[in-house]
Write a structure and sequence with these properties.
96 residues, mainly alpha, 3 helices, 73% helix
Length: 96
């Protein structure tokens, strides 16, 4: 791995680690808020409207959206490789 590629990989790792740390803080805050709000939230009736029972769960929505994002990213990766393959290997030399 070249030093530039290594530096890029290290920067990406630090970026991801920062995102994960931020996510942990947000999750802790939301859990604290949710626990506090649960004491003041009225109970939801057991009888839901027929439409509500047909809605996907939050987990199903997340799964579907991330599967779509993965397919989209794979298509973009393929396109980028194909695009680079049709470009000239070197930039044209400047005359003069």
């Amino acid at each position: 791995m070249t030093s530039i590629a290594q530096s890029q990989a290290e920067l990406q790792d630090r970026f991801i680690e920062g995102i994960k740390q931020t996510q942990t803080v947000v999750l802790d805050a939301v859990k604290t808020w949710s626990d506090a709000a649960a004491r003041y939230t009225p109970a939801v009736p057991d009888t839901l409207s027929p439409l509500a029972t047909q809605l996907p769960s939050a987990q199903e929505l997340i799964k579907g959206q991330f599967e779509f994002a993965e397919r989209l990213l794979a298509a973009q990766r393929d396109f980028a490789h194909e695009l680079v393959a049709v470009l000239p290997a070197e930039a044209p030399k400047k005359k003069g």
